Amino acid sequence: MPLRNRVTPYGEIVATPERGTMMGNRGILHDDRKQLVRTTQVRGWLCCVTSFKGIRRVIMKPHSYTELFFLDEATAFAAGHRPCFECRRGSALAFQAAWTRVLGGRSMAGEIDRVLDHERRVPRIGKKRTYEADARSLPDGTMVARDGSAWLVLGGRLLRWTPAGYAERTHLGDGLLEVLTPSSTTQVLRAGYSPGIHVSASAFTWTSTAPPTRPQEHRAAQ
Length: 222
Prior knowledge:
The protein is α+β, with helices and mostly antiparallel strands and about 220 residues long. It is built from six helices and twelve strands.
């Protein structure tokens, strides 16, 4: 049976046999039997690479942080995570710079985490916090909810998310959409930060086989 360690765009942690291309951290969520006993322990939700300095980890080792996995960076952002300043420093600095350009104020990691913690969940209930926005205002890399599924905004289209990859395409359309990606992260994407997107998206949006992801991070995640 697969472990419950895969994160959906809704921020839920589920069990699925498909593997992710990026790793995440919310603190220690599991017990000694590798069963989840909470969905978060810390305010800083990170998005990491799966390979870093040759370090090998035992998945869900007792008393160590729970290794979570995402299909791609766009999924991690929708769930409410941000780039890790240790294993993804270049991406984290780019995210921080874009945050400062559009949101101003202090953009230290702790402040970013405080804002994202408010935007991704309803306090005390833990339910995913969403908001409505005009479809045409949403930048590539944003995730939205429609017809019971999560969809990626990319190239003027919507691509349906699944644990294994993006499965179908539909028109973005006009009007209001329910947005899963936190508002501040959406503004960071609008300011020019380009999130890593799973290679399956290329079948629906590009004639080449290489989608616009960060090659060095994509290789590290294999």
